[in-house]
Amino acid sequence: MPYHSTPLDLAFHALSDPTRRAVVSRLARGEAPVSDLAAPFDMALPSFAQHLKVLEDCGLITSEKRGRSRWCRLVPECFDEAVTWLESERRRWAAQLDQLEVYLDKKEVDDG
Quick count: other Cβ atoms within 10 Å of Cβ 62? Predict the structure, then answer.
């Protein structure tokens, strides 16, 4: 399993920013027009559009023009690689902590 693939790096880069994470959280409830997504943030629309571009470039969201508005939606399957990596790391750390617990329990018995 590749741990340093470009899509994974791009996804974590995109999710490293609190504005982009907030957008992802909002889109988890359903698609929305850019104007609605931008409303909670105190920034100019071109600056906000840069955040959307980062999310779209890495494939986490997609957008389409509908009439005079641009609508965004999540691409849930694009989160799969990040979820897989995080779950693998969680299992690895849990196993290491279990080994540490066994070692400390044995040491306590040996020292006791």
Answer: 14
